[in-house]
Amino acid sequence: MFEQLGLIGCGLMGGSFALALRRAGLVRQIVGYSHSPASTERARQLGVIDVAAHSAQEAAHGADLVLVAVPVAASLSTFQAIRPALGAGALVMDVGSTKCDVIEAARHGLAERLGNFVPAHPIAGKECAGVDHADPHLYTGRQVILTPLPETRLAQTQRANAVWSALGAHVRSMTPESHDSALAAVSHLPHLLAFAFTNGLTAQANSAHFFELAGPGFRDFSRIAAAEPTLWRDVLLANRTQVQLQLDAFRGALADLEALMQAGDATGLGQAIAAASATRSQWTMGTGPVVDATSASTPA
Amino acid sequence: MFEQLGLIGCGLMGGSFALALRRAGLVRQIVGYSHSPASTERARQLGVIDVAAHSAQEAAHGADLVLVAVPVAASLSTFQAIRPALGAGALVMDVGSTKCDVIEAARHGLAERLGNFVPAHPIAGKECAGVDHADPHLYTGRQVILTPLPETRLAQTQRANAVWSALGAHVRSMTPESHDSALAAVSHLPHLLAFAFTNGLTAQANSAHFFELAGPGFRDFSRIAAAEPTLWRDVLLANRTQVQLQLDAFRGALADLEALMQAGDATGLGQAIAAASATRSQWTMGTGPVVDATSASTPA
């Protein structure tokens, strides 16, 4: 049980965490802050937070758990803002889709509190942003990746593990580099492709006609193109090196298919498609065993 | 009410049509044939067809409605096979994802029966193929595109319109060229990209790790990569000219995003992503008004 959650960023991810934590009976009070006063007030109206703070520092003050749920580019300024207010034992986590850049920001921004920071990325989301879409079940059954630093206190990693587990998530630990390369492959690149695909359609004179005829395949393929622009701009910029590697791998595979198609090579094209189809048919969404070195325990 | 449906190709699309037609009480008997004897027998066991024919010609014999639901590359041989068995008044339709090539096949294969052929493309499907996944509701609420030829008898287009409408589909008519360019944009290109994306991942040494961390975004974006290989090989080859145009448009949009990302241009990248996000957020799956020149009537 936590006495107080300091929630910095009352959007979809942060709001869902707050709702889930309260639903699990793991928090007594939630103090929230969003950059936009309207968002903070909306979160209070919806009962996602109990108290609307006027600054990130105020939200963190007195909290034994602080969740930083802001676009990753705002990590440094947020860490700097909350550092003076952090208690010596407060667990600090983020929910960012990239980890190396957030850790770099934490090294600069959290200073003597760095050992209390457990970088976290819940692999969950929706294409609709904002606290109005916050959902206490957003993390249920999803994977949460922890990428603790060498400096991270083991007890804090264990608490982080325990709290996400208590929310029904499956917790894994890995290095931030391993996280960022994998997420570039299976999340950041698909977003980039979906954005490009949508813009490529819109640029054409017949796009209205095209969109009218789009069916269920288009619906699912392009769903992530509706994602929150600022968040994804920041993710792509923060992880651009890994995204570029994945983009190059994709381009190679696309060129292979294109050459087979243009050559009319039915056998080769059929084999290449069959390989993709078999791979995707066999895939099931992972629930991730607990593979980290720490053991789960109930939250302190 | 039709006396007899001759179903050539008892797979997902054909089987679903048979189930829907029977459910609507619009057919007395269904005679089916698949290239694979095991598939034909399975369709009979499941009650999707009443009688298992030993050839396409046998399935078409005596039918007043013939549905050709085969991979588009098999269209010509199928039309040639059934032509001698076709009655003078039998309505013939296909369900192919491309129309220009199927029409070309019909011109050669159906000869004097060409006027009874109404090219049709129901914009519906699943990533799992085969009669075991046939679903009487597959076409409910979906769009069905008819692309009648100048030679097509108006009465047959009206019957085609009526039967699909009776199954709960929304029928539209357009030229085959207009259909093929639009479907290249919103269906064929996304499939090509999803195949390439999946193969680009698989080619990497860490792909098993990547796939483990894939979440809901990956699940939806890549769903169509699991599609039936032969069917999609044929579609991409048949419509390769239009697919190439769409691929070029996509590459241009992707290069724009890549340049902004690599330049670290947060403003420009944010705007480009915001454009995609706004477009996709506003899109809803079309149900397609009846815009063709024929009027709907109950099936003859």
From TrEMBL, chains A, B:
Tell me one GO molecular function of this protein: prephenate dehydrogenase (NAD+) activity
Enzymatic class = oxidoreductase
Q: Give the domain of life.
A: Bacteria
Supply the EC number(s). Answer: 1.3.1.12
Record's protein name: Prephenate dehydrogenase
Q: Does the keyword Chaperone apply?
A: no
Q: Where is the chain membrane-spanning?
A: none
Species in which this protein is naturally found: Variovorax ginsengisoli
Where would I find the Prephenate/arogenate dehydrogenase domain in this sequence?
3-291
Record's keyword terms, sorted: Oxidoreductase
